[in-house]
Amino acid sequence: MDFIISNEQLEQWCSYSPEELKKRKDLNADLRVRSESRQFYREVADLMAEELLANNAKGAATRWIVPAGPIDQWDYFIERVHREQISLKNLWIFMMDEYLDWESRLIPEDAPYGSLHAVMKKNVFSKIDPALMCPAEQIIFPDPRDLDYYDNKIEELGGIDTIWAGIGCKGLIAFCEAPHSRYYRISQEQYRNSKTRIVELNEDTLVALSQRRFGGYYDKIPPKAVTVGMKSILSAKRIVCMLRCGSWKQTVLRVMLLCTETTLEYPVTFAMKYIPEKIVFCDEETLEHPLCKE
After folding, report:
1. What is one cellular component GO term in this UniProt entry (predicted)?
2. pTM higher than 0.90, yes or no?
3. Are 149 and 94 in contact (CB under 8 A)?
4. Which fold would CATH assign to domain 7-289?
């Protein structure tokens, strides 16, 4: 049976002050709090560069799962790549997800909004010196036309080194959201072993994305996506989470740090339990919570 977080547990976790959380020794992850998000994005970039340098020195491949948001860390990473002439030739980049239209087709790259291929090409990949950049075939998006290729390639490469992740309000990683159908059930074991798949976005995700970018204009947000599954996510040796947005992420941060069971309510709990190394960056505002002030 799935573990359900009780109101009493949630209220207890949300009652701790930021200073209490910083001092706790039993958190599920290495918590790194910075005054504002741009400070931790530079630190994340340094972690990226150091891992790449270490693997390059061993002649080993580096295997990442990365989001198309947040991407602020990439500018700092690219600065360092160019300054130190760090080669990305042995880097494999597995993008977490891609939007789909209502018919489960990819959004054209020249569309005004919705193509994560276009976002990454414009804001990240095109900024990297081609002489240092990894081959195009080592940048892999989940593809609705060949759902098995993504997971098979990760398995062939021996799993993932690090996932660089933003986390949603209800604990999504990529578009691995809480199952929401009233007509069928998914067990924890099924979810833990879930593969790349096509999903309909949960309503809270549509609300968040439309509010953040289009003033609540829901029709601007593609209703579906193709996403990495939890099986490939949990093959990682490390996950580095980046949380900002203040009140939108304050409760899920507490769940990530303090919930010791896995729950389909908050899929990120699977990563907190099963990935060996967990680092969580957040800003001071996101560490706050209204319940800790009562």
Report:
1. cytoplasm
2. yes
3. no
4. Rossmann fold (3.40.50)
